[in-house]
Amino acid sequence: MSNIRRSRSSSATALDLVDRTILARLQRNARVTNVEIARELGMAPSAILERIRKLEHRGVIQGYTARLNPQSVGLGLTAFVLVRSSEPVGSGSVGTSLAKVPEVQEVHHVAGEDCYLLKVRVADPEDLSRVLRERFGRLKGVRSTRSTIVLTTVKESTELPIPAEPARRRRGA
Predict the structure, then answer these.
(1) Residue 154 C-beta-side C-alpha neighbours within 13 Å
(2) Phi, psi of 149 (to 5 degrees)
């Protein structure tokens, strides 16, 4: 995945309707051409390209990827794993180490008894056992894990809902 991220600025309020339309179209199909978007918006393709470049530079667009069918590449089992660590609060070193494990798709630092919630893709239950034992179990600071195996996925998406207008600020915010 190309990493275009530049900053973590709160730029949602700086997005106009054209930017929001471009983002919605790119999320549905990142291979859509600038000409197609330009036709839809009644703009020049060069103007669309410039907008996209600005969105990339600002970090609104963080990259482009191809979505693969996990079963087609032999990764038919999805599991969510809660990890409890013994690291000092705010350290993040265990999270960084977990993120380097190839089978881990997502790492979330969470509130509650556990420290991290992971989304893991593996071939089968035996492969999950191997990852838990050989990858997570050997990481310094990992105290325990709890796994939930996915039986059926009803919805899975990376698409964010793009409101047509920026959210209005609440009073006192």
Answers:
(1) 0
(2) -90, 135
- pLDDT per residue, tens digit, the chain (173 aa), is 444 444 444 545 589 999 999 999 999 999 999 999 999 999 999 999 999 999 999 999 999 999 999 999 999 999 999 999 998 777 889 999 999 999 999 999 999 899 999 999 999 999 999 999 999 999 999 999 999 999 999 999 999 999 877 666 545 54
Collapsing DSSP to helix, strand or coil, 36 comes out as helix
For the chain, the 3-state helix, strand and coil shares in percent, each to the nearest 5, are 35, 15, 50
Task: Using the Cα atoms of residue 151, residue 155, residue 159 and residue 165 in order, give the sign of their dihedral.
Answer: negative
pTM above 0.85, yes or no: no
- Per-residue tokens: 20: 């929001």
Token look-up 């199909």 returns 29
Angle value at C-alpha 41, between 38 and 46, nearest 5 degrees: 30
Number of H helices, E strands in the chain: 5, 4
Residue 16: name the closest of 55, 43, 56, 46 by CA. Answer: 55
The domains located in the chain, with CATH, are 12-57 (1.10.10.10), 70-149 (3.30.70.920)
